[in-house]
Known about the structure:
- It is a single chain.
- The protein is mainly alpha-helical.
- Helices cover 46% and strands 7% of the residues.
- The chain is built from 12 helices and 5 strands.
- The longest helix has 19 residues, at 242-260.
- α7 (155-170) runs antiparallel to α8, α10 (209-226) crosses α12 and α11 crosses α12.
Amino acid sequence: MADPEIQITSSVELGLEQDGGxxxxxxxxxxxxxxxxxxxxxxxxxxxxxxxxxxxxVTFIDYLxxxxxxxxxxxxxxxxxxxxxxALLAHSPFFAEMISQFPEELPRSIELSTEExxxxxxxxxxxxTGEYFPRKIKEGLEEDPDMPGVDLNGEKxxxxxxxxxxxxxxxxxxxxxxxxxxxxxxxxxxxxxxxYARFIYGNTPRSDKAVRKPIASFWGQRSHVLRHDAEEDxxxxxxxxxxxxxxxxxxxxDERERGSGMEREPKxxxxxxxxV
Length: 276
């Protein structure tokens, strides 16, 4: 059987002939290959942009394949050895800096002699699971069998406050926000709130308004009632941290101004002009 004849149709037969002449690809007055429409129109030539490729997907298994880092938490008799995968720790700028200085050979360890075991444990639990115990539920927080129902001495508040502080130190703001949201779900007491306020004002910078302002607001609205339940502790807190007393007073005065419709006077509050 003879092979079928393959007929190649020319560009002229396809209707690409222009005025009966051949199409010139390059000539004295012609267009060189590679010129763009913008160039022919007199505009600037558009530079070709390299296509951006999405970074390769990192799976949880990839994290678990990374080297193990020993964390030496605490000091003395309370010193405890914990372990975590390097790739997960590197999500923290604090640990990423330390990891970058590791030698190539193992073992790898980081000393956290000034840290407490429980907040470090909560930090690691968050790195691996995106949460820490007790988790947030619709009604508030999971029940912790090791904690009383009502936070009489501030134990529950301080747990989350310590997680908040360590998250801020390690640079994991998502965990800091999570801990702060749990603080507002704790059923506390006057003494518990005082213990929490003392910790925050003693362990956060003055510029951290997001954490300090709710405390001043809480006491500004309820101090006339709560201070009688722990008046001596409240007075001691004001003397120990004058910024706390100032923030509470500022909140009370601001609320009074808003309630009375008063406007702040931009001029001097002197009763008499100078020289009178």
